[in-house]
Amino acid sequence: MDDIAIRFSGVTKRFRRGERHDSIRDLLPALARRLLGRGASPAPDEREFIALNNIDLEVRQGETLGVIGHNGAGKSTMLKHFAGIMTPTEGRIEVRGRLSALIEVGAGFHPDLTGRENVFLSGVILGMSRAEVARKFDTIVDFAGLAPFIDTPVKRYSSGMFARLGFAVAAHLEPDILVIDEVLSVGDFMFQQKSLQKMREIAHGGATVVFVSHNLKAVSDLCRRTVLLDRGAIVADGPSGEVIRTYLGREHAKMQRPRTVDVEITAVALLRHGVEAVQFRSGDEAEVRIDFIARKDTEKVAIVLAVLDEGLENVFYTSTDALPNSPAMDLAAGESCTITFNLKLHLATATFHLGVYLHCTDIDRVFDQAVPAATFFVTTDPEVRGSANLYPSVRSIERKRSSRPADSAGERVASEPQARFAGQEAAS
Amino acid sequence: MTRPSHTAFHQTLELLLMITSREIMIRYKQSVMGFLWAFLMPALVILAGLVVRLVMSRLAGMPLATDALAAMVVKALPWAFFVSAIRLSTNSLTSNSNLVTRARCPRIVFPLSSVLSALFDLAVAAVPLCVVLALINVPLTLQLLWVVPLLLLLVALVSGLGIALATANLFYRDVKYIVEVFLMFAIFFTPVLFETSMLGPWRNWVLLNPMAPLLEGLYAAVVVGRAPDLAWVAYSAVVTVTITIAAWLLFRRLEPTFADNI
Question: What rounded mean pLDDT belongs to chain A?
Answer without folding.
Answer: 82
